[in-house]
Amino acid sequence: MRSWSDFVAAFACRAALVVVVLAPIGTASACPPGAASNPSTTIWGYEFVELFAHQGISSLTHRDDMERIDLTVIRDVAPEVASAFIDDEISLFDSLFTLKRTGYPGQITRYIECPPELRPQYGEGLVDGNTIRYFRAFANANFVAGVPTLDLAAYRLLKGYLFCRELGVVLEIEHFSPMEGDDLGAAFLDRLACPTALP
Amino acid sequence: MKARIAALSLYLCLGGAACSRAPHPSGALRLEPHPLDLIVLNVELLRADHVGLITGRSDFTPNIDRFFTDGIVFTDASAPAGATYLSATAIATGTEAMLNDHRLTRLGVAINEAIERDGKRLVDHLPTIAETLRDSGYRTAALNEWRHTGTEVFLDRGFDEFVQVSSPEGHVDPRSEGVTLFSEQVNQLLSLLDRCRGQRFYLYFHPNSLHYPFRLPIERARRDPELYSDLETLADVHVRFVSVHPALMRQRASRPSRGAALGFAEDREQRVRSLTRRMYVEQIRYMDDELGRFFAALESGGLLERTIVVLYANHGIGLFDNDVMIMGAPYQSCVHVPLLIRHPHLRSPVRIETPVSLVDLATTLYELLGVVPRLSIPAHSLIPPMQGLPYGRQVILGRDIQTEFIRRGHWKLIVAAADSRELYDLSRDAGETNDLFDPELEIARILEADLRREKLEQHRLRAELSQRLGIDEGWPADAAAP
Predict the structure, then answer these.
(1) In a mutagenesis test of the B interface, which of A85, A98, A108 is the best target, namely the one with the most B β-carbons within 10 Å?
(2) Is the interface score ipTM higher than 0.90?
(3) Pairing relation of β-strands B356-357 and B72-78?
């Protein structure tokens, strides 16, 4: 069920087009950068605006009062490459929260120290017969994953990777919902499917 | 939109030497393949901005500058990683650090400690420079300091003689007796050189003496007592900087310096920074003096008429730039390194300002020496840019434990695992102090898309090479699950 504010935000974004379309790169705007002049498409019942497309990779975003969804679509990916790529990305993300001394004096690693209840929770599920691998985590006000204390958590985050084998497409998905609202992550997961139409 | 992206692509292209015609070097160059001897000096941690031939100020490295003055100078060479193991493996095999399975770099933290010597890693089966040259009839010998570039990570393979030198770990008084000094390593290197004479040879030297704790002979250390007057503070600060969860990426929002965040008074932090830099410079001067002895031996021994000599650095050192004390970060302090080549058939100096990757050194050496590795791996030779021709490589890639970077010309994007991104224009901001991610968002997005494509290509290449070599990296199905 889409909220009214959803449509309001989308309309406002379009209206702003008139103002910013000729603005130079990086001009501040209420819209996501690059969103105003770009086509929109509906995926999983959400209206997405394409921010960027280059080399078969598209970045799309949906924003409303209750949810922000950032979606990266990577096309023309072979199954074995997709699997390795997703393994790699999952491992990279998880390494941020795994305290492991490097054993190497001077080696730089980053470690986000989270209490257990704030540590990202790993999960897997099936979407149209394909495995989605994801983390449920918390993000700060800048939409950056990993917060050390609950008071810094501004959003619940679902960060996932889905390879749609039939399409040869990897989807990188980030779903944010405000802490003060309901946890919409589980419902969002249920809505996921391999899209039949992509921009 | 598409027109906009096309325009930006052109913009990136114009900004990058890879797309435009490479600047003509200052000397004409014709180098035919020839089975010459080869000496490679991998002076780990030597920053490009401390080498006189690159900076134009011969303050710290007069012997290196003199020896390579008529050689080939790459002023903008990048190491494929800021971390030792990743970079050393990539350079030795002529493959991107991204070819490493990240599960390995995480589990092993780039080191073999957590991994059995079970030979499951693809990178351990790729031919190294030493293997290729030994297969081609060379006698191969190495003097290596530091375990993460030697037997523990299989980089001793291909050497007929591999001499491992121990080095101190943790904090030691640099003035201590009993610590292996660089001068002793040069003595050992000269002995190895003597044992190589009389046959076609490849001699590799990897010292680690620029790694903290710096080690000076006592008589040199006494010249400037202040440098070593506050070892306790230095040790304390350095340990904190390297082991107390140092956040790798600076947040784009302003915040206190790392030292302040760790509870150090600003004056104390500044003092430590200053002392560290001075100690580093003194260590370079000492190394350069000792390398001068080695160069003199080469010159007097009549070897230079049939020997290519290469000097590079595995990676650089932070020295607190970008809040990085030592290494392992994607900033220029850690990845901008010297690459100098002295070739006996070169009669006038060549200076190359095109950004190049050290990943391509192996292929370049094979072409110069006229040898063919047993496994063909896609690479780009550095010979065309030496000749004023375009460099085949479009982008330069780097990977460390938790970060990746991509360079196209003077634009550089750094991506960290938790969605932190930084964009720099190196033509205006070599020190990477002004993050342009937000104001140049479209350029950042193009580079990030390029980075994703390059990563996918590396995964594809890894699968292809694994299949060709019949290697199953042997990960259980749930190995990548946290």
Answers:
(1) A108
(2) no
(3) parallel
